[in-house]
Amino acid sequence: MTELETAIAMIIDVFTKYASTEGSKLTLTKGEMKALLETELPEILSCAKGKDDSEQLLKDLDNNGDSEVDFNEFVIFVAAITCLGHERFANVQ
To answer: What is the DSSP string of 27-76?
Structure first.
């Protein structure tokens, strides 16, 4: 697989790994999303302003209001984080 194909597969695998621990395997519950953030994005979580930021993030990502994050909502989050990372590194150079 190409690097991009590998990256896409890894995003799918990470979502599936965490979505498979509680409830529906098609969505991330609040607990699953918190575990994902703590394990997969600890640097970003450490920059959060308050302890309730992960809960606010879940609310912000939950476009359809079902109190869970589906794969489409998760991909939007990954894309937003990727864009922020790109901007940060572009400004460093």
So the answer is: EE-HHHHHHHHHHH-HHHHHT-SSTTHHHHHHHHH-TTSSSSEEHHHHHH
Query: For 3-14, what is the mean pLDDT?
Result: 98
* pTM value surpassing 0.90: no
CATH of the domain at 31: 1.10.238.10
Residues 6 or more apart in contact with residue 1 via CB below 8 angstroms: 9
In the chain, the number of structural domains is 1
Per the CB < 8 A criterion, the answer to whether 61 and 69 are in contact is: yes
Residue 28 near residue 36, CB atoms below 8 Å: yes
